[in-house]
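Quick one: structure for this chain?
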Amino acid sequence: MISHIAVFGAGTMGHGIAQVAAQSGFKVALYDIKQEFVDKGLASIRGNLDKGVEKGKVTAEQRQAALGNLRGTIAVPDAAEGVQLVIEAIPEKLELKQGLFRELDGLCGPDTVFASNTSSLSIAKIASSTRRGDRFVGMHFFNPVHIMKLLELVVTGQTSAATLAAVQEVGARLGKDCIVVKDFPGFATSRLGVCLGLEAIRMVEQGVASAADIDKALELGYAHPMGPLKLTDLVGLDVRLNIADYLHGELKSEVFRAPQLMRDMVKAGKLGKKSGEGFYKY
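Got it. Here's what it folds into:
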């Protein structure tokens, strides 16, 4: 049974994954390339747990237990030592992910399971940098990780049944509802979500309606918890543009051709919530 996890990448997704894992009783090593990134990730976790205590959703004892299960590091060998599951949550660049897993393949034990949190890149291509295709899987979490219930598990033609069973068990311990999809561009969630988001941006570009009214149409008409343009702001226009370009190239579908408005906004630095302005101002 998996008890020790290393999370690589202390950004929004990485520290969120580390938090829920630590809260669920796993021993967690959180890695990033700079100490300031690690410190920021750990501070965000403490902040989230403090809010949970204030709201009565987390006890003080649970907060302390979670923090006790967690440690930060900027050394890859230190993070990898003794872990049974690696979850990668670094930037969405294939070469970066392959390079990290290539290094980890020589550091981790032969039974360690490797997982990528990529939202769209090919799991098989990432796994090709290692000698453990049978122990490689996608574990796609959703933001904010400590609130969103879904965990998308992505399997390749090489992923073993034992590996899938192991990450399903981890997902259950994390309190997630797991779905299993095949390694196809965009998987299930990104392919559908990006498609909807791009069409909403095209509607703004064409002057069909305001961003607020388009979002309200999906929120009230189709019971979406968040409209596609608010969600694009939350994820980041630059992140979604990269995914759109990747899917357009892989699937050869005009549905995934990014609107010029999206490119113009990214060029202008209007990336969404993280930059203070996207389709909304923050």
